[in-house]
Amino acid sequence: MLDDDFVVETLVQDTFLKLWLHRDSIETPNHILGFLRFVLKRDCITYFNTPKNKFARLTASLESFENYQDYLIGYDPLQDKEQLLQQESDQKNLMKSIRS
For residue 10, how far is the Cα from the chain centroid? Predict the structure, then answer.
């Protein structure tokens, strides 16, 4: 569900920190496992549903496509090419004016 190793490691560390903080209320070894599973599941769902993380996931999912610009509304490859040509022309003109 979460493809980011850093995020997963952070959530696991936070879960064990919460276990340590609530160690006095743990009664049995089975209670430890249940506690860890519940807290980690809740934290994963919370992370997954946070709006800022949705944006990062959306961006990452678009970048996994080879030509993700083709899927964006308003993207026109011809305009992109024209803009790059114009930018190169402007850059050359700027360099000429600097040298003069």
Answer: 14
Which whole-number Å values give the CA distances from 6 to 11, 32, 77, in the listed order?
9, 24, 35
Q: What is the pLDDT of residues 7-24, one digit of tens each?
A: 888 889 999 999 998 889
Question: Contact 9/40 with Cβ under 8 angstroms?
Answer: no
The DSSP secondary-structure symbol of 2 reads -
Which two three-digit tokens encode residue 22? 């609530």
Q: How far is CA 48 from CA 6, 13, 39, 52, 77, in A?
A: 14, 17, 14, 9, 33
Write down the pTM of the prediction.
Answer: 0.49
Cα(1)–Cα(47) distance, rounded to whole angstroms? 11
Region for 24 from its dihedrals, namely left if φ exceeds 0, alpha if ψ lies in -120 to 50, beta otherwise: alpha
Closest C-alpha among 6, 14, 60 to residue 41: 14
